Amino acid sequence: MNKIFQILIKNHVFFLFILLQLISLRLLMSHNLVFESTFLKKTTEISGFFFAKEKNIKEYFFLKELNDALLQENVKLVKQNSGLNKIIQSHQLLLDDTIMHKTNIIQARVLKNSWNKKQNFMIINKGASVGIKKNMGVVNNNHLVGITYTVSDNFATIINLINTNLGGISAKIKNLGHYGSLKWDGKDFQKMQLHTIPKHAKIKIGDTIVTSGYTSIFPENINIGIIENYNLQENTNFLEISVHLFSDFTKIEHVYIIDSVLTEEQKLIEKTLLN
Predict the structure, then answer these.
(1) Same-domain check for residues 112 and 168
(2) Are 207 and 72 members of one domain?
(3) Cα 20 from Cα 14, distance rounded (Å)
(4) Cα 146 to Cα 250: distance, rounded to the nearest angstrom
(5) Do residues 233 and 108 share a domain?
(6) pLDDT at 6
(7) Contact, 187 vs 226, CB < 8 A?
(8) How many domains, the chain?
(9) Are 137 and 258 a contacting pair, CB within 8 Å?
(10) What does the pLDDT read at residue 94?
(11) Secondary structure (3-state) at 197
């Protein structure tokens, strides 16, 4: 312990310099959006490169169990499901191929994943070069996973659902239509909390929670989880509902990024209404 203190005292100028550099960098990022964006892209690219190498080594020694052909087939199934949902919702009787082509599904491999922290992220091996942008919805087997965050040319980070910094997600009770805001309290990585559901809603344990479709990020009816329990919030007319997530964040190997060509159109309409 004395040696450690001696080293710190002897090199205090150097450590002070490093600390001041970090503080300066933080201040620069917080006041310069262009620099922050460039810095995050660079760190995403560098982190992604090293995690990709680590992943390749692990797969080489422990064998790659997933079949790429099957994953490609899953992409088609996810895309088909999205198209069928749109058709059902618009009461069309015939399959309209143009709807199918309005949603592009990008498959990506998870290079790094955390699930035991307060702010959990993933790093994937796809980026802007294949059309990934910030704020795209991410799913796994039609189960909601998160939202794309920083994007470089070849890699991207994803904010997991189980991240306390993620804003409330608009979700609804599938068989009732009541919708509210879904957020993680930072405690159990398998559970999220659905807020602002009115107390008169006739909910039941086991009811399915899905995306509401009220935002431009997520299409409607992507599975999120099931109601595990609920109670009435004190001094309010709302229920607080515990939702057990379908996604198991401890073993996600591949994800699918939802790129809808209708997203920008919806954002434009929303912006017009707000103005």
Answers:
(1) yes
(2) yes
(3) 10
(4) 14
(5) yes
(6) 61
(7) no
(8) 2
(9) yes
(10) 38
(11) strand
Tokens of 63: 């064998």
Residues 182 and 104 in one domain: yes
Model-level pTM?
0.66
Q: What is the DSSP code (8-state) at residue 234? A: T
Q: What residue numbers bound the domain in which 183 lies? A: 51-275
Q: Could you read off the pLDDT of 136-176 as tens digits, one per residue? A: 999 998 899 999 999 999 999 999 999 999 988 999 999 99
Of all residues in the chain, the percent with pLDDT exceeding 70 is: 58
Cβ neighbours of 66 (radius 10 Å): 11
Say whether both 36 and 72 belong to one domain: no
Residue 193 tokens, joined: 């909390």
65 or 146, which is more confident? 146
Question: Is residue 120 within 8 Å of 163, Cβ to Cβ?
Answer: yes
**Calpha distance 22→34 (Å, rounded):** 18
CA dihedral 142, 143, 148, 149 (to 10 degrees): 180
The answer to whether residues 264 and 213 belong to one domain is: yes
User: What is the predicted pLDDT for the residue at 141?
Assistant: 83
167, 116: one domain: yes
In terms of DSSP H, where are the helices of the chain? 2-10, 12-31, 33-62, 68-89, 97-100, 263-274
Q: Tokens 């039941």 — which residue?
A: 204
Q: Region 206-211: what's the mean pLDDT?
A: 95
Under a CB-based contact definition with an 8 Å cutoff, are residues 123 and 156 in contact?
yes
What is the CATH classification number for the domain harbouring 78? 2.40.10.340
Question: Are residues 7 and 75 both part of a single domain?
Answer: no
- 248 DSSP 8-state letter: -
User: What would the two tokens of residue 158 be?
Assistant: 């994803």
- Find, among 182, 183, 193, 198, the residue nearest to 239 by Cα: 198
Helices 12-31 and 2-10, axial angle in degrees (round to 10): 70
- Out of 50, 70, 86, pick the residue that ends a domain: 50
Angstrom distance (rounded) from CA 148 to CA 143? 15
